[in-house]
Amino acid sequence: MRTRYKPYNKEGVYFVTSTVVEWHSFLNSDEIYQIILDEFKFRRENKSIKLYGYVLMPNHFHCIIYSENINKIMQMIKSYTARKIIDKFINEERNEELAILSTAKTKSG
Fold first, then answer.
1. 100 within 8 A of 59, measured Cβ to Cβ
2. How far apart are CA 33 and CA 36, in angstroms?
3. By Cβ atoms counted within 10 A, which residue in 5, 14, 22, 85 is the most buried?
4. Rounded to an integer, what distance in angstroms lies between the CA atom of residue 103 and that of residue 22?
5. What are 4-20's pLDDT values in tens digits?
6. CA of 27: how far to CAs of 19, 32, 60, 101, in Å?
7. Dihedral of the CA atoms 94, 99, 72, 8 (nearest 10)?
8. pLDDT tens per residue across span 48-93
9. Where are the chain's structural domains?
């Protein structure tokens, strides 16, 4: 996932856009949306973020978020959700999606 952070205001709130590799529509089920929502909920409950709003789409998401360390928290959110989604693809034998992810990982180094 590629992520961009744009300051939303002077208090450290950010408008974040995070895209799926090569804009593939991998965020395409309620179960995958729930993985992302559960991670947002976990981070909110543990006081590492304030989440003001979000939009989930098949190939990317936006959120308005506050964190004292936006880079680190987005890295943790993306790492956790990517691992859970990949595990889901493995369990469901979604080999086409896994091949795309494997190819993208090889390209990025």
1. no
2. 5
3. 85
4. 11
5. 677 667 788 999 999 99
6. 10, 6, 7, 13
7. -80
8. 999 999 999 999 999 999 998 899 999 999 999 999 999 999 999 9
9. 2-108
**Euclidean distance between CA atoms 57 and 59, whole angstroms:** 6
CATH superfamily of 2-108: Transposase IS200-like (3.30.70.1290)
Q: Are 37 and 29 in contact (CB under 8 A)?
A: no
Eight-state DSSP code of residue 19? E
For the chain, helix (H) and strand (E) counts, in that order, are 3, 4
Q: Is the distance from CB of 97 to CB of 54 less than 8 angstroms?
A: no
Structure token digits, residue 64: 């308005």
